Amino acid sequence: MPYIGKNPVGGGFHKLDALTASATDTYALTLNSAAYYPESANQLLVSLNGVIQAPQDSFTVSGSNLVFDTALTASDSIDFVVALGDVLAVQTVTDGAITTAKLGNGAVTSAKLDTNIAVSGNLDVGTIRDAAGTNTAMTIDSTGRILTPARPAFYAYDATGAWQSLSSSHEVVMPTTDYNVGSHYSTSTGRFTAPVDGLYHFSGKLYCNDSSSTSSFYVTVDSSLEAKELYAVAEDSAADASVTFSEVRELSSGDYVSIIGNAGEYYKAYSSFSGYLIG
Predict the structure, then answer these.
(1) Do the beta carbons of residue 258 and residue 189 sit within 8 Å?
(2) Which of 57, 90, 127, 166 has CB atoms 3.0–4.6 Å from 261's, for a disulfide?
(3) Distance CA 258, CA 251 (A)
(4) Which CATH class is domain 153-277?
């Protein structure tokens, strides 16, 4: 806004303490007897023998010292030294004076933001990445759908079409996967290993046949038979049985989940095992 009269001046403008010439080129600058440190020679107005001197050419500064290009003598006269403003001596900025246009692009970095930011309005974001900024943890598309591409998940099955005879407590292995995000399911051991603590959902189906009288299958954590649950029983040795299961397990990082069969047979072409991290 305009001012009535002279505009206010920001910064400090000082006539420094008097200097007495002698047989030297270096003179200590002081203001009210305290050392004065100019930012550069261009900040000073120096008069020597009635002639204004050119900064950088006739003199330089080193710390709080004024250094002439040649040594003076006692017959020379340093008339005055004026400091034209103190570096960073600025006036208080009026509230609301710093607008978006006055901020440079990229000037506000994450280091300048508070660690806990409360958003009272809308927060528009398309991608959320990890702390290192390298892995995408979540995306929100234009329709508002939330996608989590890094969420551990798998779907495993067997398409060999052969019967598999299982001995007691033998783990069922599905050698093929449609998807295996994070590669946490092993197609060689039949185990899904939890990468983090959390709740996991598992489901599957088994097409089984028993050569004796009964075949049983269990979903176990770390092959713990105490925690096993009965899921499939084929009572007639001449008949086939199909079973499906679905459950949620709380796992710790490093726990593994697998299907164990007991002295039974299953037809791999119709069997599958899947799971994913809920959260």
Answers:
(1) yes
(2) 166
(3) 13
(4) mainly beta
> Do the strands 65-68 and 59-62 form a parallel or antiparallel pair, or are they unpaired?
antiparallel
Residue 71, token pair as written in the block: 């040594």
Choose among 279, 137, 257, 254: nearest CA to 198.
Answer: 279
Rounded (5°) CA angle 35-70-40: 40
Q: The whole model's pTM is what?
A: 0.57
Q: 190: buried, middle or exposed (CB in 10 Å: 19+, 13-18, 0-12)? A: buried
**C-alpha 141: how far from its chain's center?**
21
Other CB atoms within a 10 A radius of the CB of residue 163 amount to: 14
* Mean pLDDT, all residues of the chain: 82
Residue position matching structure tokens 């998940």: 153
Please write the tens of the pLDDT for every residue from 24-58: 999 999 999 999 998 889 999 999 999 999 999 99
